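Methods — Computational structure assignment.
A single polypeptide chain was analysed. Its primary sequence is given first, followed by the predicted tertiary structure written as C-alpha cells.
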Amino acid sequence: MSKQNSKRVFVLGGARSGKSRFAEQICIETGAERHYIATGRAWDDEMRARIASHREERGPLWTTHEEPLALAETLHRLDAPGRVVLVDCLTLWITNLMMEESLGIEAESAALAELLPQLTASVILVSNEVGLGIVPENRMARAFRDHAGRLHQMIAASADEVFFVAAGLSLKMKG
C-alpha cells in the first residue's frame, strides 16, 4: 500500500453509537495488517473488564498497543506500508493529557494532525463528539470540550473521509 493508497478516516459519534464497530469494519475491509492503538486507561475494575472484553472481541488478527499519551510517536513507530492502524479514542487521549496536567495539549494535537498526511499506513481515528450538548458547568469540562473540538477540526481537515455515527448508522460527512 503506497502513500497514495493509504487513507485517513475520522469517525465521530456519541457513547455507544457504534462508532468503534464501524471503524473496525473499515479496517477489516482494507485487508491490511491490523494494529489497534488503545488510549484508554484501566482506572478501575469495570474499565479493566471492559478493556479485556474489547480485546477478546477483536480477536487474534489485531495487534494491540496500549498508549495513553504518546500517540503521535506511536503512530510514527507503527507506520509501514500494508498496515492499517485504528486509534480508539481521541477523547480518552485528551482526558489522559489533561489528567497528566499536560500544558502541551494544543501542541500534541497539532503534531498528530500534521503527522497523519505523512504516514504510509492507513489510519482510522475514533472520537466522541462532545460539542452537541449544552455548555458544561465547570471549567475542566469546558476545557475538555474545547480541546476536543479544536482537535476534531484539525483531524477532520487532514482526513480523507469523515463519518458521524449514531444509533449504529453512519453518515458520510467528507470524502
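Note: The chain has six helices and seven strands.
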